[in-house]
Design goal:
By secondary structure, the protein is of the alpha/beta class. It has 18 helices and 14 strands. It has two domains: about 180 residues, Rossmann fold (3-Layer(aba) Sandwich), CATH 3.40.50; about 190 residues, Glycogen Phosphorylase B (Rossmann fold, 3-Layer(aba) Sandwich). The strands form two sheets. The protein has an eight-stranded mixed β-sheet with strand order 3-4-2-1-5-6-7-8, sandwiched between helices.
Amino acid sequence: MDNQTRDEQKAFNYLIISADTYPPFRVDVTELFAEEMVNKGHNIDWILQSEEACNKSYVTEWRSSRVFVGATDNGESRLSRIKKHLMGVANDFKVFKLTSTNNYDFIQVKDKFLSALFAIIAAKLNNCRFVYWLSYPFPEASIYEARAGIARYSALYLIRGYAFKFILYRIIAKFSDHIFVQSEQMKKDVMANGVPEDKLTPVPMGISLKMFQQVNAGENVDCNHEKLMIVYLGTLLGTRKLDFLIRAFAIVNKAIPATELYMIGSTEQQRDIELLENEAKIFDIQDNVIFTGNLPRNEALDYVKKADVCVSPFYPTPILNSTSPTKLIEYMALRKPVVANDHPEQSLVIRESGAGICVPYNEQAFAQAIIDILSDKELAIAMGDKGYNYVTQYRTYKHLSQIVEDRYRKLLQVERK
């Protein structure tokens, strides 16, 4: 067996430090790494902080991987929040001991900044690769929220944003062997801060094909389907400005009265929900706008299954432009036609797939696209089929895991300078 073949078959041994808490629930963690990468035979250790209140750190097994779970304090006082942060830092500090006693090929840090500094030092001391995973532009988001006046503590957010920006672009980017980002747009944004292109690989959000095959085969949720259903799945945070969607639906409902808008999701701020409810009352469509609140994942997807059209409005800001919307891919996986507004990732996916209609961020245009799909059942079915075919070919985590694995292998083949 030649060296290239041996390299292609080598199982990786690596450590992941992530901002996700234990047990993780985000699909880019549970499906990409804990499912697909483990199924490929790779060995993963995790350093995660407990989601539930926990006074003492412990080690456990999760999805055939070892997890070093850190203690936490879930109190709401400022002292508790500081204590929780310090507990997380203490747990991440285990990177030094673990790296010295395990022959890791990589240390990968996801969405953490101070802990990335620990990992960089540990990687250098133990001659292993350091990889960073950036799923959201956290530094820029903190700065934007502070300047827009929507941050709870504007001065603190501004300081944090600039500190994280310095760490990310001046230290992490310099000393990392590679950086994974969320989208092509995020890759461009990171490059604009001086990071070379060959150091960046976009890995967009995807789906577990097995999970969605089970959802497609399952029973539909029991809901009134006498009216045409328009479904939005996702957060109802005020920063998403979803009153746009309420006003667009008012136009749709006037043209096609037998329609309902299902808002599936919630927010920690009750005033965000109240704003949307009040907007619906202004247009006298409150009986046709249904707020379900947070639902178990399978139940939420059951509503999507029943939908006649699904919507993905994104308020156009530089922060959200670099995201990779999960809901768009989930809609397509359930064969639903989609209406979305111009957004780098959404525009690309809809253009390549033919899964729906992408329009400017304009209420009238958004409403008309919904009306066009609701008025043409054959068009809706054709879009749903195209979306499903696209997702199963390009956006399953089985496919995305191959992109990640290939990049890892290339990194291992590069000699240390």
